[in-house]
């Protein structure tokens, strides 16, 4: 079976009247209206604000806490030519925030410069050493963007030196805020801003708008970039920012982004929110991970595409280097994770693992294993790294009680960064094991996934795809609608990107549908088999190739009931047969003993009785033939492997042996009766040649005759019994066993794949 990664929800709309009203008012299908109502847009006003976002829906920037103080101080600095430093951050939200604030201040004629800290030498957020250096160089006003609220002590030092500080931030607020000239934050406890979900770039955009006394629409593309890259909720004001920002990016991209998109091979007509998430943001983030994020701000502020092109090409190549680092480190981390498969929280560590990409590696392991994961780089007696978590496990809480094991630590429930003495690796693993027990991680429910509708392949059409686009842009808080399909099966299963991803053709009751499955490469062999039922969940996607447009499903989750049955039946066993890290199950003890030395050390050889007690077999290979279907059924009902691969090897199949006729039995008896004292050791082959039957057929007949007492064999000498007691030879146990074996082989070895799959699925069905 393939277990789903999520708990699937199929919400029913209780307010059918609202669905009908919205459908009629906005000319959308009932499916679109149902999705809107399910997401809370159940009135004409709410649906209108969602479906028709424009700049008139933006809130007055002066509703933000301390915005009036911030603008007053900024205008004072501009009028007096005071030196302003914009202090940013090394991620995309930080780069775009820095670019927006710098652009707005330059436009107003300010004496402004910007600084983007290094991930490696400066760290995140306020840095006293940097502040002191800027002060010594004549800074008179510091403006933080996408950081600052955690800098109580650092800001206090600046203020004590007569240097004013304006903090613009959106991160979680500490218990004690800095005492600054102004703190512009959408969730400030003393503020009343209508929407608390702005990104750092969103807050910078609001400051720019307040400075200009009108929406700063020239930087909406940057605000959209920061909003999507920082995974902010694409609702309310963020929806307006991203919708309008994407339109600006599509119609008239700034030179730096145009050059970056060209380097990535992206057409302007293809731009949507996923372009930010999967094309622009990873490339800009590569700067902060591997080099200097200041280059990213430079690119965003460039006026000439000719100047921007070399920089964009460099960033693109740097992203390729980042991808290779992630691939290499992830492979090594996966090997460790496999060895730690019993740990509820994974902590993997290696030497020369680039610290700038460890968060990405941790995310990939979380995605692949479903477990919270920490990835650390070992540098002598110190380890540094990042952790990512899963819903229902608070990583910050798990680590917070063990600060004695770390020299530095910070983060939140789903992500954390830390520095750990190398000697504390074992202790850290033990502490997280205990934390998993305390938080009952083993009993945690899967995260929910809301399904819009159940559909078939025939529903993937241009009309339906175009209808769905009225809900775009998609992202956090406004996910692409998900659809469920029941499949009859899949074919043409192929891996991509060195086995990381999959593509296959799904067969529904109406038609076939191409499916792309990112991150599902490890299920390639399972999908090659057959399940009792198979369902997939995904989004509707448009694919354009050489002018031809088609539609496909981008897989999000799948559920397959029953073991995936892989037809590995063979008539030959070689060393290569046993070189896979799977569980080889034997029905004959002598076969296990004979083949034990050929089996890979990473594999698990078991007798069938022992396999019945194993609960976590991933791939069970049935090497030889069971004695009966009852024996096979006992095994399959007791064990539930993810994949079942029957080989059913038999050295001498009896199915290929013809069933002796009454005439053949008679011919053999007459021969034995006519020739006395036949020496089987020396005359057996002569009997075969004379009777014109096979070796196996003659052996079978002689065994039947022995059981029926038609012949005797003493010391290898064969003689007929004169006038034996008449009996029906086909009723002997020997003949019955032969026929039963023949029938068993017919069902398990000489059946079609479809027939075998049906039989094995029926045998494995659990009692209800």
TrEMBL record:
Residues 83-227 form the DDH domain. GO terms for molecular function: 5'-3' exonuclease activity; nucleic acid binding. One of its GO terms (biological process) is DNA repair. Transmembrane segments: none annotated. Gene3D superfamilies: 3.10.310.30, 3.90.1640.30. InterPro entries: DDH_dom (IPR001667), DHH_sf (IPR038763), DHHA1_dom (IPR003156), RecJ (IPR004610), RecJ_C (IPR018779), RecJ_OB (IPR041122), SSDNA_exonuclease_RecJ (IPR051673). Residues 453-557 form the RecJ OB domain. Residues 343-436 form the DHHA1 domain. Signal peptide: none annotated. Residues 565-758 form the Single-stranded-DNA-specific exonuclease RecJ C-terminal domain. Keywords: Exonuclease, Hydrolase, Nuclease. Belongs to the RecJ family. This is Single-stranded-DNA-specific exonuclease RecJ. It comes from Weissella paramesenteroides ATCC 33313. The lineage of its organism: Bacteria, Bacillati, Bacillota, Bacilli, Lactobacillales.
């Amino acid at each position: 079976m393939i277990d789903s990664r999520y708990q699937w929800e199929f919400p029913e709309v209780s307010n059918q009247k609202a669905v009908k009203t919205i459908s009629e008012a906005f000319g959308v299908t009932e499916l679109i209206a149902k999705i809107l109502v399910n997401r809370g847009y159940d009135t004409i006003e709410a649906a209108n604000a969602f479906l028709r976002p424009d700049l008139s829906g933006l809130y007055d920037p002066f509703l933000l806490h301390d915005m009036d103080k911030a603008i007053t101080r900024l205008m004072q600095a501009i009028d007096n030519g005071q030196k302003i430093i914009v202090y940013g951050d090394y991620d995309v939200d930080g780069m775009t925030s820095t670019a927006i604030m710098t652009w707005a201040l330059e436009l107003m004629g300010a004496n402004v410069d910007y600084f983007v800290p290094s991930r490696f030498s400066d760290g995140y957020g306020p840095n006293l050493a940097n502040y002191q250096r800027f002060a010594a160089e004549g800074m008179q006003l510091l403006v933080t963007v996408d950081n600052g609220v955690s800098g109580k002590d650092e800001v206090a030092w600046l203020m004590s030196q007569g240097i004013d500080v304006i903090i613009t931030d959106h991160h979680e607020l500490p218990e004690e805020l800095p005492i600054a000239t102004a703190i512009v934050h959408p969730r400030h406890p003393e503020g009343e801003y209508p929407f608390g979900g702005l990104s750092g770039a969103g807050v910078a955009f609001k400051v720019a708008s307040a400075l200009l006394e009108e929406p700063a629409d020239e930087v909406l593309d940057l605000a959209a970039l920061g909003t999507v890259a920082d995974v902010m909720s694409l609702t309310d004001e963020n929806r307006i920012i991203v919708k309008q920002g994407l339109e600006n990016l599509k119609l008239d991209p700034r030179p730096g982004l145009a050059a970056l998109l060209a380097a990535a091979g992206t057409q302007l007509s293809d731009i949507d929110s996923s372009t930010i998430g999967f094309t622009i943001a990873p490339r800009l983030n590569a700067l902060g991970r591997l080099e200097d994020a200041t280059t990213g701000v430079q690119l965003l502020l460039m006026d000439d595409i000719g100047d921007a092109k070399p920089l964009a090409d460099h960033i693109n190549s740097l992203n390729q280097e980042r991808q290779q680092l992630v691939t290499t480190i992830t492979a090594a981390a996966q090997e460790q994770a496999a060895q730690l498969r019993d740990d509820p929280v994974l902590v993997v560590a290696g030497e020369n693992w680039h610290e700038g990409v460890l968060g990405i590696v941790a995310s990939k392991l979380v995605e692949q294993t479903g477990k919270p994961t920490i990835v650390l780089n070992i540098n002598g007696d110190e380890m540094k790294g990042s952790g990512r978590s899963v819903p229902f496990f608070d990583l910050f809480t798990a680590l917070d009680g063990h600060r004695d094991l770390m020299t530095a630590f910070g983060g939140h429930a789903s992500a954390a960064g830390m520095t750990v003495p190398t000697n504390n690796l074992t202790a850290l693993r033990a502490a997280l094991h205990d934390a998993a027990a305390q938080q009952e991680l083993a009993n945690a429910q899967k995260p929910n996934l809301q399904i819009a509708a159940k559909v078939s392949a025939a529903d993937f059409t241009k009309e339906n795809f175009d209808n769905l686009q009225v809900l775009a842009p998609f992202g956090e808080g406004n996910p692409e609608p998900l659809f469920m399909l029941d499949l009859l099966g899949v074919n043409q299963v192929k891996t991509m990107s060195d086995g990381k991803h999959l593509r296959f053709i799904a067969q529904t009751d109406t038609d076939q549908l191409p499916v792309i499955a990112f991150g599902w490469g490890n299920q390639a062999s399972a999908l090659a088999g057959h399940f009792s039922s198979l369902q997939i969940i995904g989004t509707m996607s448009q694919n354009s190739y050489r002018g031809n447009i088609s539609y496909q499903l981008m897989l999000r989750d799948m559920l397959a009931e029953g073991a995936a049955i892989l037809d590995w039946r063979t008539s030959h066993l070689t060393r290569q047969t046993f070189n896979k890290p799977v569980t080889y199950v034997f029905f004959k003890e002598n076969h296990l003993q004979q083949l034990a030395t050929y089996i890979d050390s990473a594999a698990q050889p078991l007798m069938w009785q022992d396999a019945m007690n194993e609960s976590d077999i991933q791939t069970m290979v049935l090497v030889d033939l069971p004695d009966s279907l009852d024996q096979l059924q006992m095994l399959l009902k007791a064990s539930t492997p993810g994949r079942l691969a029957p080989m059913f090897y038999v050295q001498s199949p009896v199915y290929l042996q013809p069933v002796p006729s009454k005439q053949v039995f008679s011919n053999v008896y007459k021969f034995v009766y006519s020739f006395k004292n036949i020496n089987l050791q020396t005359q057996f082959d002569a009997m075969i040649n004379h009777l014109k039957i096979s070796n196996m057929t003659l052996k079978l007949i002689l065994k039947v005759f022995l059981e029926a007492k038609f012949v005797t064999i003493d010391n290898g000498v064969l003689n007929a019994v004169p006038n034996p007691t008449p009996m029906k030879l086909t009723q002997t146990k020997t003949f019955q066993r032969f026929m039963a074996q023949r029938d068993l082989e017919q069902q398990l070895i000489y059946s079609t794949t479809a027939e075998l799959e049906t039989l094995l699925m029926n045998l494995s069905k659990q009692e209800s």
